Amino acid sequence: MADIPVKLANATVYFENQELLGIADVELPKVEFDTESLKGLGIAGEIEVPNPAYIKPMNAKLKFNTTTKAFAKLSEPKAQEIEIYGATQFKDNSTKEIKYGQVRAYLKATAKVMNAGKTEAGKTMDAEVELTVYVYKLEIDGQMVYEVDPENFVLNINGADYLQEVRTALGK
């Protein structure tokens, strides 16, 4: 039987050239396809048909304990690279031992909402940066599971290139 996934043991957030961004919670992008309702003669109802060739805007959030220089740098209105490395914890079902794997997320993104947080004595400031994401890659144990780049018609999931036919049809 396979390993049982337990939790994210810990993670680090890096900026551009491996500069540690600080202590942050990260909300990774949601990949959502546009859909079109299909109804009419020949079907007994209405269904939604996803369009993988039209990906809705992707966003990510980084929430820091306090406002830092890294928070300010990330707020600059330019495309920036962010990498999140996580250690995922598993339980080996046969030996019952704890094992670890790696999850890595790569974002090419620009800040769109900055909130320096609140000021309350003895409390975290909860500074937050919301990003618009142009490129999103997700690796698990060194294997690419997502590569999403709407501007270049790239949608790779688990090694399958779902927009190859679209790129070919468009002469790309």
Sum this structure up briefly.
The chain has helices at residues 69-74, 164-169, and strands at 4-15, 19-20, 24-27, 33-39, 46-55, 58-64, 80-91, 98-115, 127-140, 143-149, 154-157, 160-161. With 172 residues, the protein is mainly beta.
Protein described:
This protein is mainly beta. It has a single domain (4-37, 46-146), classed as Pnp Oxidase, Chain A, CATH 2.30.110. Helices cover 7% and strands 58% of the residues. The chain contains 2 helices and 12 strands. Strands 1, 2, 3, 6, 7, 8, 9, 10, 11 and 12 form a 10-stranded antiparallel sheet that branches. The chain has a two-stranded antiparallel sheet with strand order 4-5. The protein is globular, with a radius of gyration of 20 Å. The termini are far apart. The model has no long low-confidence stretch (mean pLDDT 92).
Label this structure with key terms.
single chain; Pnp Oxidase, Chain A; 12 strands; globular
CATH topology: Pnp Oxidase, Chain A
Number of strands: 12
Output the radius of gyration. Answer: 20 Å
The N- to C-terminal Cα distance equals 44 Å
What's the average pLDDT?
Answer: 92
- Sheet-strand content, in percent, reads over 45%
Number of individual domains: 1
